[in-house]
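Input record, target 12 of the design panel.
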C-alpha cells in the first residue's frame, strides 16, 4: 500500500470519527496536506466514492443510527450533523430511506434497542 493510499485511509477514519463536526472538503484537504482537488481525486481512486458524497452519506447514516438509539429530537439530530434545517434533513433522509425520519424511527426503533 502506497503512502497516498495510507493517507486516504487515515483521512477516511478521521472523517468517520468527526462526523458531528462541520466537515468542509477544504478543511479535510488541509488536514491531509493536499490541495482540495488532489484530495478529491485520490479519495475517489482509493475509496471509490467522491469525498463530498462520502461525508454526506456517513453523516446521514450516523443521524439514522441516532434516531434509533436515542430519544433526541429530529431537529437536534439534524442540527448535530450539520443540516441547516429540519426540512432539508427530512428531504435528504426521505430520499435515501424512502420515508421521513419520524416514520423511519417509529418503524425501526425496536431494532436499535436490540443491538
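The sequence produced for target 12 reads:
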Amino acid at each position: 500500500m502506497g503512502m497516498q493510499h495510507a493517507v486516504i485511509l487515515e483521512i477516511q477514519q478521521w472523517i468517520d470519527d468527526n462526523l458531528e463536526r462541520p466537515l468542509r472538503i477544504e478543511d479535510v484537504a488541509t488536514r491531509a496536506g493536499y490541495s482540495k482537488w488532489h484530495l478529491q481525486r485520490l479519495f475517489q481512486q482509493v475509496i471509490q466514492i467522491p469525498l463530498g458524497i462520502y461525508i454526506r452519506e456517513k453523516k446521514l447514516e450516523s443521524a439514522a443510527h441516532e434516531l434509533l438509539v436515542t430519544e433526541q429530537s429530529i431537529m437536534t439530530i439534524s442540527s448535530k450533523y450539520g443540516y441547516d434545517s429540519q426540512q432539508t434533513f427530512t428531504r435528504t433522509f426521505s430520499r435515501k430511506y424512502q420515508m421521513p425520519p419520524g416514520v423511519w424511527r417509529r418503524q425501526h426503533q425496536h431494532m436499535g434497542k436490540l443491538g
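The chain has two domains: 3-55, 57-114.
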